[in-house]
Design brief:
Blueprint lengths: L23 E4 L9 E10 L55 H8 L14 H18 L14 E4 L20 H18 L7 E5 L1 H7 L5 H6 L2 E6 L11 E6 L3 H16 L5 E6 L5 H11 L3 E5 L5 E4 L2 E3 L5 H6 L7 H16 L7 E5 L1 H13 L10 E8 L14 H8 L6 E5 L3 H7 L7 E5 L5 H6 L13 H7 L14 H35 L2 H15 L3 H13 L4 H15 L4 H15 L3 H11 L32 H9 L24 H9 L11 H6 L5 E5 L9 E2 L6 E2 L5 E7 L2 E2 H14 L2 E6 L2 E2 L23
Parallel strand pairs: 2-3, 4-5, 4-6, 6-7, 7-8, 10-20, 11-12, 12-18, 18-20, 19-21
Antiparallel strand pairs: 1-2, 9-10, 11-15, 13-14, 16-17
Helix pairs in contact: 1-16, 2-14, 6-7, 9-10, 11-15, 16-17, 16-18, 17-18, 17-19, 22-24
Organism: Cavenderia fasciculata (Slime mold)
Family: Belongs to the STXBP/unc-18/SEC1 family.
InterPro entries: Sec-1-like_dom1, Sec1-like, Sec1-like_dom2, Sec1-like_sf, VPS33_dom3b
């Protein structure tokens, strides 16, 4: 049995878009006659720490999440940096990029499009010394040389991670020791799974789990728990034969046509083989009638159906998710509101977890059609409640439709770039395991080259890096350099006269530092890879054209760039992303331009994508200019006031931008004062609304009523429930601040998904405003691939529709 390969990434690249980090580093290996040699770091040189916790181990492979790759045909489409995953890459001086501060965009927007937008090169010595110092510091602090740069016969260097036996446990599960409500929530999810498995007869059974559910279950339980509750063998749901000696077979899956067709194939296979088995399907989060009809059509009534009503999943101490990836398309494309009841029930569960007896939340506000429906449903269900929650002061509901621009902008935080380029799936990032030593000791099945590394607040190094703009991490004054310099060797204080207690404390410090060194080495390697990718001119072009739109400058160059991308057959969803951003910022696309782009998309990508374009028009991402554009406010998220004229004229977005100061020229990315640092100048619109809602200085939303009315998505609502039984709790309906003995929770609920940059911006606001924000979403939106982005189910794929 093997660890599920949830990602299959042949190469990577991490480093920052704003500071040059040379890929050559010094080799400080004492066995090399004391000489320092420059060698290159292989793109697959990350050797991750394998989890000690026994997470789900399943038989069979899995399709990987797609990483960021250059969508220009170049022989091997799976590789972005190189066509050979074992080939090292050395950057010449002309390829080095200096840092790109927010002012970079201002000075480049007015340049002619034919001029190279690549920043001038930077002296490599500074970055080289920086990286060399980091690795040298790590090596010197580790007497066993577990972290080192090895020079093998092929001149490839691998950052070797210490063996798992030498580390503390680090799993997908964040530490919730000091967060009792969320700990009880996770235990409730675990118990719910045990309860539904106990209904399966006969037991033990073979448990088959679909690929998208596997990593999700690692946030709830482990393989020991599943085996204790009857799972004799665990497999991954795959096409093809299912050969097992278990009499009872249980499928734990999401209700999709693809999954159900695989189940039908397995049952038919067993019938042809003359095998009689008992089948049970456990749907997450509930039984789907369309799937039931499909099963009955092909198999009759031979399968027992159960449901596991999983709703809120704990991703971190301040982050929960319903894991409903198709909700946005369900609501705005199919107009299916059935899953809104799950959102309402999740809020009721929070009232029970935080309110003791289930007291109602004292202050609720929000914006959006579906947020209003949830709000109305919550009011009806709360009619019998007479108490007010002491632990939650405010619930704010936001439809994704209110701010469609932010999900279309490239993230520039460390966590956002990792998710964009390499994918983070349920706190898990899959890394290359190139250490032969570790493969022999950790990986049971020969040939497995991928292992997962958890990314959450339990990693102390990562918690310092994840929400920072990438430019603040790298360089001589970067955070990575500062952390490396501050690593001290606890053993250096030993003089032989210490007591047993002192020695125990030193050993504890040594173990803690070893864990930090392991984490730091991985994040440095990730930073090197990000730097490689973001230093490419292709990435710079994307960024520059996004900034042109946000600054409303040189729009004609953006139009030409979109056409150029289509002619180069770049990834369709990336082309559509830029087209959608253009349409939203400008209010619409000129009819002549839109028809030309549509014609070329059909010619290059296929006529089926007329349906794709129609889908994007339905949900409001694309809009063709008409004579009534300026008056039809509800027909488009950002309607233009210039009737489709694409010159630098006024649009609703430009007006909102000026009123809310969404785009700022000078942003301090190292010591930010404004949430605009997450996009190096652009502040997420949704987060600016949150900032206004909870700011006394800005008088809440009263000062921006005209803006709220002009924004798309639906009505604005607000209601408060002051309680005379709680005299010590005072609620200000404008600032929604609450005075109690403990800091109450402020819940921000995104219906339709939230981006990594919005999460980082809200955390920044919480620290700045001294509020304890709890972020809840239906799904985390990634910019890295279409299947986890805003475009889920919008790009037509006749062979694999996500939801039935």
């Amino acid at each position: 049995m093997e660890e599920p390969s949830s990602a299959d990434q042949e190469d990577g690249g991490v480093g920052g878009y704003t500071s040059s980090m040379i890929t050559k580093i010094k080799n400080h290996n004492n066995s090399n006659n004391g000489n320092n040699k420059y060698n290159t770091i292989s793109h697959n040189s990350i050797n991750p720490i394998h989890r000690t916790r026994q997470s789900l181990v399943i038989v069979g492979g899995g399709s990987p999440p797609k990483h960021f790759n250059r969508p220009i045909p170049r022989g091997d489409d799976d590789n972005y940096i190189t066509n050979n995953s074992t080939t090292t890459t050395t950057m010449s001086n002309n390829e080095k990029r200096k840092s790109l501060p927010a002012s970079f965009f201002k000075q480049h927007l007015n340049k002619d499009k034919d001029k190279d937008t690549t920043p001038s090169s930077e002296s490599p010595n500074k970055s080289s010394n920086n990286l060399s110092f980091m690795f040298k510091k790590l090596n010197n602090n580790n007497n066993n040389k577990d972290i080192n740069i090895n020079n093998n016969n092929n001149n490839q260097n691998n950052v070797t991670i210490p063996q798992q036996q030498q580390q503390q446990q680090l799993t997908q599960l964040p530490n919730l020791t000091n967060n009792e409500p969320l700990e009880r929530l996770r235990e409730s999810n675990r118990k719910g799974l045990g309860d539904v498995l106990s209904l399966v007869k006969p037991s033990p059974f073979a448990l088959i789990i679909d690929a998208k559910t596997t990593s999700l279950l690692n946030l709830i339980t482990d393989v020991v728990f599943l085996k204790t509750n009857g799972a004799d063998k665990i497999y991954k749901l795959n096409n093809g034969r299912l050969d097992t000696d278990c009499q009872s077979i249980v499928y734990l899956l999401r209700p999709t046509f693809e999954n159900i067709n695989i189940v039908i194939g397995h049952v038919n296979q067993h019938r042809l083989d003359g095998l009689k088995k008992e089948y049970t399907i456990i749907y997450i989060p509930r039984i789907n009638l369309k799937c039931e009809r499909l099963l009955e059509e092909h198999l009759g009534c031979t399968i027992t159906s159960l449901e596991y009503p999983l709703d809120l999943v704990v991703l971190d101490n301040d982050l929960l998710s319903l894991e409903l990836p198709t909700l946005y398309s369900d609501l705005y494309l199919d107009h299916d509101k059935s899953q809104l009841s799950i959102i309402t029930k999740s809020i009721q569960k929070l009232q029970l977890l935080y309110g003791g007896g289930g007291g109602r939340i004292p202050h609720i506000k929000g914006k959006g059609h579906y947020s209003k429906l949830v709000f109305d449903s919550l009011l009806r269900s709360n009619q019998h409640l007479t108490t007010v929650s002491k632990e939650i002061d405010t619930l704010m509901l936001i439809d994704r439709q209110v701010d469609l621009i932010t999900p279309l902008c490239t993230p520039l935080t460390f966590e956002g770039l990792i998710d964009d380029f390499f994918s983070i799936n349920n706190n898990e990032h899959v890394l290359e395991n190139t250490s032969k030593k570790q493969q022999q000791q950790v990986v049971k099945k020969p040939g497995q080259q991928k292992v997962s590394y958890p990314l959450h607040s339990g990693d102390k190094i990562y918690s310092q890096l994840r929400d920072r703009n990438f430019s603040s991490l790298v360089g001589m004054n970067g955070i990575l350099n500062m952390i490396t310099k501050n690593l001290d060797d606890p053993q250096s204080t030993l003089d032989g006269s210490e007591s047993l207690t002192t020695i125990k404390n030193i050993i504890r410090k040594v173990n803690a530092q070893r864990l930090e060194e392991n984490s730091l080495s991985i994040h440095i390697a990730l930073s090197i890879q990000i730097q490689t990718i973001t230093s490419d001119k292709y990435f710079s072009n994307i960024l520059v054209n996004e900034q042109r739109l946000l600054h409303n400058q040189d729009i004609h160059l953006v139009e030409e760039y979109i056409e150029e991308c289509i002619m180069r057959k770049e990834l369709l969803w990336r082309v559509l992303k830029l087209m959608s951003l253009y349409s939203l910022v400008k209010g619409s696309i000129n009819t002549r331009l839109y028809n030309r782009l549509k014609m070329r998309i059909v010619q290059i990508y296929g006529c089926e994508h007329l349906i794709t374009l129609n889908n994007l028009e339905k949900v409001g991402l694309l809009k063709e200019a008409t004579t009534s554009s300026s008056s039809s406010m509800d027909s488009s998220p950002m309607s233009s006031t210039d009737n489709g004229n694409n010159n630098q004229s006024s649009t609703i977005f430009n007006w909102i931008n000026e009123e809310l100061e969404l785009v700022k020229e000078d942003i301090d990315e190292l010591e930010p004062k404004d949430i605009g640092f997450v996009h190096s100048g652009y502040a997420p619109l949704s987060c600016r609304l949150i900032q206004h809602a909870f700011s006394r200085k800005l008088d809440g939303w009263k000062g921006i009523e005209s803006i709220l009315k002009a924004l798309p998505g639906g009505p604005t609502f607000e209601e408060s429930y002051p309680s005379p039984s709680l005299p010590q709790q005072q609620i200000n309906t404008n600032s929604t601040t609450t005075t109690t003995t403990t800091t109450p929770k402020t819940i921000i609920y995104f219906i339709g998904g939230v981006t990594r940059t919005e999460i980082s911006a809200i955390r920044f606001l919480g620290h700045k405003m001294k509020r304890d924000f709890l972020i809840i979403t239906t799904k985390i939106i990634s910019n890295g691939n279409a299947s986890s982005s805003l475009f889920t189910n919008l790009i037509e794929n006749f062979n694999n529709r996500e939801n039935p």
